[in-house]
Amino acid sequence: MSEENTTKFRLDEKNLPRLSKSQSQRLDSMRDEEIEQAALSDPDNPPLTDEELAAFRRVPDTKAIRKALRLTQHEFAITFQLSLATVRDWEQGRYRPDQAARTLLRVIALDPKAVKRVLEVIQHLNTQLRSKGGKMGIQTHFDKFHDKIKLGQKDDAYKKARERDDSISGDVKDAFKEAGYPVVTEFIQGSLATSTAVVPIDGDYDIDRALVIDADSAPDNPVDPKIETLEVMESRGFKNAKIKKPCVTADYTSDSVHIDFIIYKKSGEQHYLAVGKKNSDENNREWAKADPRGLIDWINDTSGYGEDADEIRAQFRRLVRYLKRWRDSQFSEAVVAKVYSIGLTVMAKEQLQWSFNTEGFRQDLIALRCTVSRMLDATYFRNEENDQYRVSVFLPKEPWRDIFDGSSLDTGTQFRNKLQHLKDKLIQVEDLTDERKQCEILNKLFGDDFVVPDPPKSESQTSKAVYSTAGVVGTSQGG
């Protein structure tokens, strides 16, 4: 069959091709010999030979293996150090195990207790290697790094932004009340709501403020309250004030504060997001169903983490902060704005692989490397052509949209390739036992807040320092 006579098309999963009634009747009436002869006469798709069939390898049935062990998906993932999201993908057929994973599943099916023992021994050996030079080794440096970059709503570093937020929010609420649709509730969205915010490198603090009005008093046009918000911001001297499709955004002139107001109406328990720009016609604006509270709850949820839920959630939050600072350090300013924080957070949540040693100490390096590896192995990055990648991550709550919808191949390719580089470097760090060399690599990945310790003093330097100190003391005493 010639290439020019080949027609390529993509199957529609919701409208798969089916045999007509007459075609089905014709197929049912055929004898086995006729079916085999018809298959043999097809030059493009002949039946497999016995040799070809023998070369096939059956993909292990993850669900059957798990059921045989009488484990839930969560228990299976924890026992064999797998991502819960990955186990679900395997069982639901969204993603097939690679060669290494298939081998692991076969061994689990044969002797699950042996696999569990081996994994525990490997983890213990890794812990001992990382612990050289201190009780927790490289983890001490991760802790110091995290203390430098973490940001909470009540932190002193956020004080000015918090004051600006309270002031402008009050004015916007007053404007809504005068317009006839008073705010019934408000809440913080984004990183501050999920305890995953980081201190900005450029000093520009972001606020995501949600204002909710009752559906009964809300205007038919969702852009109306956004215009009210814009007018308040402009009257208060904000710069770059504009109405975007999902929000109203502006920068405070005298301070490094960026504010996004997200407007909802609420009917019962259902939220509706005000979607539309300033001049959007009725076909391009709407009150769209959304579940902002549900998204925050999903990110903060610990129901699948077992007895160590608080420790695991704390590690998850640290990993998200590391990923955000890595993004801010590794991408250009233009691309940073397109590698969305919510995208990183959802990916890390779905692919989270926590790690603690046998004594219960956290191992953020191992957890980060495993989580990044799973992010790469999942279905987020699709190779479109010539190693050009499209990134796609769906919200786990309404409106279920693709977070990176409309994202370019350049963004997806950079994101995927830099994530692979991060994984490779984390593996390199794991293989080292010299903490200073480890920190040098991590400093290049995460920036100057991951401090490289001073080189240890040589024996001669130490002796010189001791003699010098003793001499000074002696002189003082002699005087």
Polypeptide structure, described:
- The protein is an alpha+beta fold.
- Among the domains are: 62-110, 434 Repressor (Amino-terminal Domain) (Orthogonal Bundle); 156-296, Beta Polymerase, domain 2 (2-Layer Sandwich); 305-446, Poly(a)-polymerase, middle domain.
- The protein has 19 helices and nine strands.
- It has helices at 21-29, 32-40, 50-55, 62-68, 73-79, 84-92, 99-110, 112-130, 138-149, 159-179, 224-235, 292-300, 309-330, 333-336, 341-350, 364-377, 409-431, 435-446, 459-478, and strands at 183-188, 205-214, 239-243, 248-252, 257-267, 270-275, 286-290, 381-385, 388-391.
- The strands form two sheets. Strands 1, 2, 3, 4, 5, 6 and 7 form a seven-stranded mixed sheet that branches. It has a two-stranded antiparallel sheet with strand order 8-9.
- Helix 7 packs across helix 8, helix 16 packs antiparallel against helix 17 (409-431) and helix 17 (409-431) runs antiparallel to helix 18 (435-446).
- The chain is globular and about 85 Å long.
- The N and C termini lie far apart (103 Å).
- Residues 130-135 and 462-479 have low confidence and may be disordered.
